[in-house]
Amino acid sequence: MTTATVNGITIGYDDEGSGEPLVLVHGHPFDRSMWRPQVEHFTATHRVIAADLRGYGESTVVPGITPLPVFATDVVALLDHLGIDQFVLGGLSMGGQIVMECARMFPGRLKGLILADTFAQPETEEGRRKRHQMADRLLREGMSGYATEVLWKMVAPHNTAAGEHVSKMMHNAPPEGAAAALRGRAERPDYTGTLEAVTVPTLIVVGSDDEYTPVKDAEYMRDRVPGSTLVVVDGAAHMPNLERPDVFNEAVAGLLAQT
To answer: Is the Cβ–Cβ distance between 163 and 152 less than 8 Å?
Structure first.
C-alpha cells in the first residue's frame, strides 16, 4: 500500500506509469479500484494517479461532513506531495463534481478535464433532504442494504462482472466516510459558471442507461464547456468505465491526444 500524509490525513493511492500525469477521482461510495481498467490501460503512455478519497478505501475516515472543496484540496495536496504541477483530471459522479470544484479553485493546474456521469446543477431542497436522510440511514444500518438496493442502477443488469466489482466496493465503504460525503454534497453549489470558464480540452462521458445522471445532464455540460466532446456509451449505466472500458478508454485517449 502506498500512502501519503497530507491535509492532516493519510491517503492511499496508486501512482503507476510515466509521462504526462492523468489523475482519476472516484465516486461515491466507491474507492480507487474502480479505475483499475484505466490505470492498467494508460500506464503505457501516461503517469496515472488514482487515490482513495478521505473516508473511503485506504484513506483516513473523517466523520461529520466533507464538503467538495475539502476533497478538492486533498487531491491537489497529494499532487503537490508528488511534485506534479499540471495534469489532466478526470472524475465520475461525485468525482466529477470534485473535478469541477478543482476547476473552480485551481484552474491553472489543469491541462484537460474528464467529466463522467456527473452533473453541474446545484443541489435542490429535496435533494438536500434526501442526502441527509441517506447519511442518517448509512450510519444507522451500514452499507449493505443501500448497496443491494442501488446496484443495478449503478451498472446495467447485463454487466455482471462490473456489478460484482461495484457491489464489493459499496459493501466495503466505511459508513462514516460515505455519510460525511453525502452531507457535503448536500451543500453542492452551481458549477455552471465554472464550466463556462473552462479553457482546456474537456471530455464528457455518460452511460446511455444512466438513471442517476442521464444523458440530458451530460448535454447540459457539453453545451456550456466551450469545444467539449460528448461520448454516450451504449449499454452502460452509471459506471461506463467498468461496464464498457474499451469504449471509455478510447474516448479518454482522444482527450489525451488533445492535451
So the answer is: yes
Express each pLDDT in 183-223 by its tens digit.
Answer: 999 999 999 999 999 999 999 999 999 999 999 999 999 99
Q: Between vectors from CA 140 to CA 70 and to CA 117, what angle results, nearest 5°?
A: 45
In this structure, are residues 256 and 22 in contact, taking their beta carbons and an 8 Å threshold?
Answer: yes
Cβ neighbours, 10 Å, residue 107: 13
Phi, psi angles (nearest 5°) of residue 74: -65, -45
What pLDDT score was predicted for residue 25? 99
Beta pairing class for 9-16 and 47-51 = antiparallel
User: Which among 27, 76, 17, 69 has a CA at the least distance from the CA of 52?
Assistant: 27
CATH superfamily of 2-256: Alpha/Beta hydrolase fold, catalytic domain (3.40.50.1820)
How many Å is the Cα radius of gyration of the chain?
Answer: 17
Give the distance from CA 159 to its chain's centroid. Answer: 20
Taking the C-alpha atoms of residue 119 and residue 65, their distance in angstroms, rounded to an integer, is: 21
Q: Where are the domains of the chain?
A: 2-256
Instruction: State the Cα–Cα distance between residues 164 and 167, nearest whole angstrom.
Output: 5
**At 1, is the pLDDT very low, low, confident or very high (cuts 50, 70, 90)?**
confident
Q: What percent of the chain has pLDDT over 70?
A: 100
- pTM more than 0.85: yes
Q: Which helix (H) or strand (E) segment is 49 a member of?
A: strand 47-51
Pick the closest to residue 69 from 123, 23, 106 (CA basis). 106
